[in-house]
Amino acid sequence: MSGPPEPTTWPVYARLCRLNAQLEQVLSLAAGACLALFTVVVAIDVIYRQVLAQPMMWPSEWSVMAFVWSVMLGAAVSASRQSHFVVVLVADRGRAGDHVLRTFVALAAVLFSLVLVYFGWRMMMTGTRRFTPMMGYPMTYVFAAFPVAGIAFLLFSVEQLIAAVRRYPPRHAPHTEIGSE
Amino acid sequence: MNPITLLFVSFFVMIALRVPVAYALALASLLIIVQEGLRADLVVQQMFQGLNSFTLLAVPFFLLAGQLLNSGLITDRLMRLAEVMVGWIRGGLAHINVVVSMIFAGMSGSSTADTAGVGSVIIPAMYKRGYDRRFTVAITAASSTMGSIIPPSIMMVVYGAQGGVSIGGLFLAGAIPGMLIGLGMMIYSYVYAIRRGLPAEARPTVREFAIAWKEGLLPLLVPVIIIGGVLTGKFTATESGMVATVYVLFLMFVFYRSARMRELPKILAEAAVLYSQPLLAVAAASVFGWLLAYFQAPQMIIGLAGDMTGSIPLTLLSIMVVFIIVGTFMDAIPAIIIFMPIVTKLLETSGANAIHGGIIVVMTLALGLITPPYGLCLLLASAIGRVPVVKVLPHIMAFYAIIIGIIITIIFVPEIALFLPRLVMPQFVGS
């Protein structure tokens, strides 16, 4: 689990760890809030259609937008906790190769984050000219989830890259939480 | 190298080096997109398309329902109910393990929620009564697979949404096969208990029986709400998931008062983090699946399959074998999304029923939850029971045999799966 970094660690890294620990908290609560939002919106939709017999247009678009946001923000938190699904073929044995492997995985995570930030940003910009089919909201509202989550992914993966290169213990031990419990 | 081959090779190299599956799917796709000169913006655009579906909202709801059952002490009530029903049979705790997973399966769409919730209570109880640790972990993991087969099921929702197959029809088709698996496991446990001299639990008194039913009755309404809502057409699968979630919240916070309101933000936050993991893989798998379709992989597979598609059982058997392999290293939901175009094409060509094919795929992928190296339920049960996966393997073989045996039986006798959907909603089943 998370713990304060050793005093001997690089100060920039220590600061990044503290920032990321807070960011992780905020993002997880925001993801939970999005979940609450789409639960309520779907409930309103069902009540209006089934009980009041007045079907409405906005709930389906609102709920999908909140859903996309909650997935992307939650996924950023999972990236920080290193709990995204990983296939473990051989167990760690503390060999020299493990350090290289850890660096490679962190590099892949950085690359994935950059894809989310750069192409997510480009998609978000096209969203000003694209609108949702029923209510006509700009797609920017939902596309923004990708670059925003991407920035968080980037901060977390840079932390992991520094930790891997400098051989610091990770803030969250990877693979301790096994996927979706 | 052929783009499809390169796609798979780069993906496998990355997951072998422990890159998370979701990242590997997206990065392998990016490599092919750049190499083939397609627009790189496609990666994020297809990821968005993968998530942009109202039906997928059922995933958080069915997962949350399972989480809530566990955190609100409702699993304990279900456990007592299972105890009075089957605890008095020889090998009582093993039977309780299977039956409570069956009931849980009817309430949550997730197998891992079942392993975590039921496992953390029943594994210590079975150890205390002298059950072999390896057998205990094996049966806990194996019985959780029913969570994905007995309705509701997250896998079926995703399969139905991706393949345009009736989700209600799939739900109904899973009921009998799921119960057969439970029955098979109970028969095996009974024989095992006699051989090992395992005890039965005390026979419940009439009073105990009545109390357990009274306590368990309200949670038992969850499956009724979900299945009833979908079958009567009142709700979609997603909406019924929402209704079930709200109902469980009501039980927890208002009726039983087993949790406090101030815990709710944390419960919701953790649930969101949890479902984001399979769903990020869904988003990334959409890019991968799109590329497979773009490079005409389905047509290629049909070409390779040749005359085999002339026989329905042969086609379904090969689908089963492929998904057993896929299930050992990949999560079920991305697997469905990636291979859906190929499966649909194969089923169409062979003339197999779409619901029949769907049940075979879902059952096989549920088996994948207990096959190493990537079998989430097995990993989870091993972690809870503190037994290394390798030691559990010899004991879980019997359960593999039961599940595979039932899948093969259903391949040759489709009526086992199709009987209920034909009875209740014939318009969605087709020939």
Name its key features:
heterodimer, A: 181 residues, mainly alpha, 5 helices, 66% helix, disordered C terminus, B: 431 residues, 77% helix, globular
What general outline of chain A do the C-alpha atoms trace? Answer: elongated
Shape of chain B: globular
- Quick one: which chains have the greatest interface? A-B, 56 and 70 residues
Radius of gyration of chain A: 20 Å
Q: Helix/strand-derived class of chain B? A: mainly alpha
Largest sheet of chain A: none
Low-confidence runs of chain B (pLDDT<50, min 5 residues)? none
Give the H and E element order of chain A: HHHHH
Number of domains of chain A: 1
Count structural domains of chain B: 1
Low-confidence stretches of chain A: 175-181
C-alpha end-to-end distance of chain A: 16 Å
Number of helices of chain A: 5
Approximately how much helix is present in the residues of chain B? over 70%
Structural class of chain A: mainly alpha
